[in-house]
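Treating backbone geometry as a discrete language has practical consequences that deserve illustration. Part of our work consisted of pairing the sequence of a single chain with a tokenised description of its backbone. We regard such an encoding as a compact summary of how the chain folds. The amino acid sequence and the backbone structure tokens for this protein are reproduced below.
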Amino acid sequence: MTRVAYVNCAAGVAGDMLLGALVDAGADPDAVFAALGGLGVDGYALWFERVQRGGVAATRANVVTETENDHDDPHDHEQHEHRPAKAITALLDAAELSDAVRTTAQSVFDALATAEGAVHGIDPAEVEFHEVGALDAIVDVVAIAAALHDLGVERVVASPVAVGHGTTRSAHGVLPNPPPAVVRLLASRDAPIVGVDTTMELSTPTGVAVLVALAERFGALPDMTVERVGYGAGTADPAGRPNVVQVVIGTAAEPSVTPAPGRAAVQLEVNVDDVSGEVVGHAIAALLAAGAHDAWAVPIVMKKGRPAYTVAALVDPADVERSAAVLLAETGSLGVRASAVHRWPQRREEVTVDIEGRPVRVKVASGRAKPEFDDCVGVAEATGRPVRDIVRAAESEAIRRSSGR
């Protein structure tokens, strides 16, 4: 049996609304507070209260920071803390969090960095978050990750996402509603939206990033046995429409093997017959360093029987221009071709195991483990043991830890 959470975004989605819904559905607030305590930061308060929105009883997650307490205008974005993406990664790396919670939270900020980087035309690592980087958003994301894991949720599915129209205020001034980052996030997953005739900012970057990072698909409710339901309240209480996120928790007999429509991706390719194997290998490394999901080369035969390579990369739609530039620069090709594909990445987490007193990073997914080979080489060189023995030891230890034995 697989634990599933369905997020109904008929009124939009925001980080605090999703957190309130998960607590309303039974997530233990003490588990949330314990995870937040591991961040090692202060200057904020979080509490939950029962409220009504449009006649629907719901839980409101209140996150208040010292900055908000010190000023009367919550829309004065100059008061918000600005944090670069790498600072948030460093904060999560240093935090006393479970590997599962840390990985979940980091995946949300990775999605945000990719979207913001595409909006501003900069490398995701150099993105400086404004509202999203503020302390209240960090609290929301880590608290949501802790609540999901406390509920034992293994799969997330989301409805089409409601959005308003008009304009909204931000650190960059007046922007279209929905904000550019929200649209970019939704586009990265080919996510469906529902337009609502309101100028309210129904869906925020934080809320949408959680769904983009964690939902296996967007659409109808999955087949499951319903066990719990929770409602998370937004700040406003507009007439005629309950301003809530609904979360339905249940169990499905089988996890989805090939969730549709999958995650959108682009496959870039060039054919080259005038470069060495060393150059091809370097091109693959450069593409991976630039953020490609995968990169590879296939030997081919071109005209007049010339031996050649097809060098390819699988990238996010937002990263096409940057990755194509790397592919052209490293191979010297005169052109690149692209094709739209869908991918179904298996949910995974990264753990660090101790082998011979040295750390080895391992990716774990559904009983399988793949150690970071460079880490294994480092242990082998330091201990004199064969690298294949280190790989096997790291795999066994990671699987043992993930299964709780």
About this structure: The chain has a mean pLDDT of 87. The first strand starts at residue 2 and ends at 8. Residues 2-252 form one domain. The chain has twelve helices and 20 strands.
